[in-house]
Amino acid sequence: MTERPAANKPFEDGPAQLLPAPDTLAGHVVDWRDGGAIHGVGVLDDLAVHYAPHEVLLLGLTGTEPSKIHGRAFGVALTLISASHVGTAPTHSAVLARVSGAPTSGIIATAGLVAAREAEHVLTTHEALITWLDQHDGQLDRTPGSFSGWAQRDPSWRRRVLDASGLDLPALDVARDEASAALIVFHQLGLRRPAQLVAAWSWARMIGSLAESLAEQGLDIRSYPLRLPHYDYIEDDTEDVIADSTPTDTDDIGDCAEVP
């Protein structure tokens, strides 16, 4: 039996093609000509010679060339949150991708995606701090109860960060951990939009995530703790029940099956 060739259908525009659109894609930050430029600052003759990579990132996110102090402070803040160990979401996900046989591109993509999602979660959990920073512009109100929702850190914490960064930043008095300290520094440096904060956080977390997930030591599925904790999957008439087999203090475990 001979198949009939399919008839050529005339090209038809879809809804997207019917909308008015420019003929070219416009860039607003990065210029490709003459060796490239970011916000008008040449890559070959300026950025590559006088700026560290994290300072170029700060320029890209803010549109302003950072001073030496601001560049150093940004580096300190990024480093504060760079130790994304295997117990954190970005690194755990990247390591799991590796032991599952993903290519390097997949490992890096996994780390980046989860780091960005982690950043969004951090912004949500630190919403009170960010709102306070926006209202006070980073200036610490010394009146009683001005920011009672945050525990005060030992003065040595602020002193170490200030000495390393060179910033005069009294708002660090309310920093209770590395994440809040980094957000306070980011805010002072002009990173205040959620997109800017997510970008900076993700960039920093990728340092530890890639170092761990791409390390040379052998990693395969046999090195992943698949039984921590051990789960027993039980099907009933309505839905699947996932039972944690962790020993309990009660004999009444309902639909959960205890694994011998």
Which helices and strands appear, and what pairs or packs with what?
Blueprint: E1 30-31, E2 37-38, E3 41-42, H1 43-50, H2 53-62, H3 68-80, H4 89-99, H5 104-125, H6 127-136, H7 155-165, H8 178-188, H9 194-213, E4 231-235, E5 240-244
Antiparallel strand pairs: 1-2, 2-3, 4-5
Molecular structure report:
There is one protein chain. With 260 residues, this protein is mainly α. Helices cover 45% and strands 6% of the residues. Strands 1-2-3 form a three-stranded antiparallel sheet. The protein has a two-stranded antiparallel ribbon with strand order 4-5. It is extended, with a radius of gyration of 26 Å. The model is unreliable at 142-150 and 241-260 (pLDDT under 50).
Assign the structural class, choosing from mainly alpha, mainly beta, alpha/beta, alpha+beta, or little secondary structure.
mainly alpha
Helix content: 40-55%
The count of DSSP E runs of length 2 or more, i.e. the number of strands, is 5
Gyration radius, to the nearest Å?
Answer: 26 Å
**Lateral arrangement of strands in the main beta sheet:** 1-2-3
Task: Tell the overall outline.
Answer: extended
Largest sheet: 3 strands, antiparallel
Strand content: 5-15%
Output the helix-strand order.
Answer: EEEHHHHHHHHHEE
Helix count, DSSP H or I runs of 4 or more residues: 9
Mean of residue pLDDT?
81
Uncertain parts: 142-150, 241-260
Which descriptors would you attach to this protein?
mainly alpha, extended, 9 helices, about 260 residues, about 5% strand, 5 strands, single chain, disordered C terminus, three-stranded antiparallel beta sheet
